[in-house]
């Protein structure tokens, strides 16, 4: 009779051991769940709450504020320097037009042309004589390009059809469209007759029936000395000038244009007295500090993005294991901080732009335009990144929430409106392009229609339409009236209504509370305040274990 009692006793002991292990595993799971919930809540805290929770100083916030000041100062100095470069280019181009184009006045680029054969020859030899007399007539520090000890010559080339017999009176023509080229060269040291070079000095004749274009190409050099007054080292400029006589249309009007291809190079030998080199060194040191600051910001933000992705994977794995449920895409995207990604992009652009700026100041590179695009874009993104920290305050967060909530609907709405817009663009270009200056290209059509949507220059668009062909003029009225009515009174009003509706919805949510997602509902179960001390890493494990075991015991007690 004793054996059954012994057996029962041993089974009871085995059950107690199994129950203890089960309670231990459940307690361990609750511990992990509580730790994950607290990690998630800490991850979504703002910098002030994180400081109260763990005493962690807001280094990223401090670096962003410092970076804003440094990047803005850097951009201002580079902008002033770039303005001098652009102004020097533009002023030289205007000077060359006045020097080499006979009778040229400002703002006549679109209308500058000749209509007689005599005027064509006069224009060509006027430019040649001005080129030969450059040293005596130019008020700038222009000089001929040198290759070794010799100065480069001006090339005068005419392009014409290989063979052509044209008789408009008989409505007949015989032409070979293959283009042939004839060139002759004028040396800068060419001897002059009474200060001018006459046409008789060259065997140069134009066959205007076959002539396509005439091009005068020559190179000049100059030094931008105005930068010395601003404590910067001057740059050396190479100007490749091309004067084009365009007769492609054979309409009796030969358009004349001057194109200036500019290259900036490092001066070979230079010496400037004073403290310019010291100022250059100070600016390069400042740029180096900007690079270090952006590098620190890049490391911190990249680390935060990586932490968010790791925490996202941990939460997804926990949800699958614990609840056998997949986390929604919107909840997963909560872990990807778009502000940090934008700051990372701005940091990369600033580092590259600052490096280029240092090379430009050292006169190793002359990529002013590339550097200005990089620094300008990075500064814009840096200032936009500040909105993230304003978003922690409820009164300043309304704009960000409205933009984020309205963005998907706005993108879908714009895709539909773009189909209508592109249809009007192609139609206007094809039909109105030959008769209206604002519709000559697709780019101009798009700019004109976008201006009309914003109510700009409406009367001028109607007025400049040619009335020679009544059918086209009538079509233009129907086209413009329908576009303006459709986009201003319907599309634009619907677009504004879409934003307004989202704004009212967000404003209502701010007063009544936002809809709670599964992620935020999971985090909301953690009631610990940031200053409770429960988020400190060294205290977290024992306290959480005690709470979880206590919670398990409470569940088992009836």
Q: What features would you describe in this structure?
A:
It is a single chain. By secondary structure, the protein is α+β, with helices and mostly antiparallel strands. It has 15 helices and nine strands. It has helices at residues 2-43, 47-54, 59-100, 117-132, 134-137, 276-323, 329-333, 338-361, 368-390, 398-432, 442-453, 458-463, 470-512, 518-524, 537-556, and strands at residues 113-114, 143-144, 146-147, 150-151, 154-167, 172-186, 211-223, 236-246, 254-265. Strands 1, 2, 5, 6, 7, 8 and 9 form a seven-stranded antiparallel sheet that branches. Strands 3-4 form a two-stranded antiparallel ribbon. The longest helix is centred in the middle third of the chain and has 48 residues, at 276-323. Residues 1-15 and 538-558 have low confidence and may be disordered.
Helix content: 55-70%
Largest sheet: 7 strands, antiparallel
Point out poorly predicted stretches. 1-15, 538-558
Determine the strand fraction and express it as a percent band.
5-15%
Please report the number of helical segments: 15
What is the SS-derived class? alpha+beta
What's the pLDDT, averaged over the residues? 82
The SSE order reads HHHEHHEEEEEEEEHHHHHHHHHH
Q: Kindly state the number of beta strands.
A: 9
Radius of gyration: 37 Å
Outline type: flat
End-to-end Cα distance, whole Å, is: 36 Å
